[in-house]
Amino acid sequence: MTRILVVDDESQLLRALRINLRARAYEVETAQDGAAALAAVARRPPDVVVLDLGLPGIDGIEVITGLRGWTQVPIIVLSGRADPAATVEALDAGADDYVTKPFNMDELLARIRVALRHHTGPTPQRITVGHHTVDLSTHRITRRCPPQPATRGDGEPAASASGSPTEHPGGESVVHLTPTEWKILTVLGRHPGALVESQRLLTEVWGPRYRTETDHLRFHIAQLRRKLEPDPAHPRHLLTEIGLGYRYQP
């Protein structure tokens, strides 16, 4: 059964949508603020999110940006803001569609059907970058067959800076990323082989106000390559498309 998460702070509207959608055989979950919406998607990802922008606490744009950092679930904005600027801001943040209130129920249902048709389906939870296995759901990266540790003059293995070997039991070593690096890698990793434009990547990771801050992006991409690519100077997996954006190549 198709699951829809409806997010709105108007109790009466939530009740009406829940009744109408369930009558058409959709499973419906509701949330009345942005924090609850993000928690609901993380707990049990829906097939479609219907989202109001004027939410208490975390507003709708922040919810869109937060979701786009790790999921491509279709998002249909359902808002009383009818001005073009609000529409553009929501779409640039990552929404798939925009419906203004008051709305026609049949039109909303049609837009939900379109969003479901266009959705590409489940996104990968685990990707490979060189010798690294990246689990996007648990935020854990392991490297198989790590390089041999450096040796001292007596042939004994050198300790790491912390005084303990960097290799973990079982032939694995763990790679640590910053939260920003995780966001970038997650967006790229969920679109294997596809070009992700710089503006889109900036919007999903930092928000719409940072769409032109390409220096931020170049710095963090370089850090990811240093940590994950076998030869960071000649990347094979985290590729730059000059003047366009970046691509994760499995």
Topology overview:
Blueprint: E1 3-7, H1 11-23, E2 27-31, H2 34-43, E3 48-51, H3 60-68, E4 75-79, H4 84-93, E5 97-100, H5 105-118, E6 126-129, E7 132-135, E8 140-144, E9 172-175, H6 179-189, E10 195-197, H7 198-206, H8 214-228, E11 238-241, E12 245-248
Parallel strand pairs: 1-2, 1-3, 3-4, 4-5
Antiparallel strand pairs: 6-7, 7-8, 8-9, 10-12, 11-12
Helix pairs in contact: 2-3, 3-7, 6-8
Please characterize this protein's 3D structure.
- Helices cover 36% and strands 20% of the residues.
- With 250 residues, it is an alpha/beta fold.
- It has two domains: 3-118, Response regulator (Rossmann fold, 3-Layer(aba) Sandwich), CATH 3.40.50.2300; 126-144 and 171-248, Winged helix-like DNA-binding domain superfamily/Winged helix DNA-binding domain (Arc Repressor Mutant, subunit A, Orthogonal Bundle).
- The strands form three sheets. Strands 2-1-3-4-5 form a five-stranded parallel sheet, with helices on both faces.
- Strand 3, helix 3 and strand 4 (75-79) form a beta-alpha-beta unit.
- 31% of the residues are buried.
- Mean pLDDT is 83; it is low at 157-166.
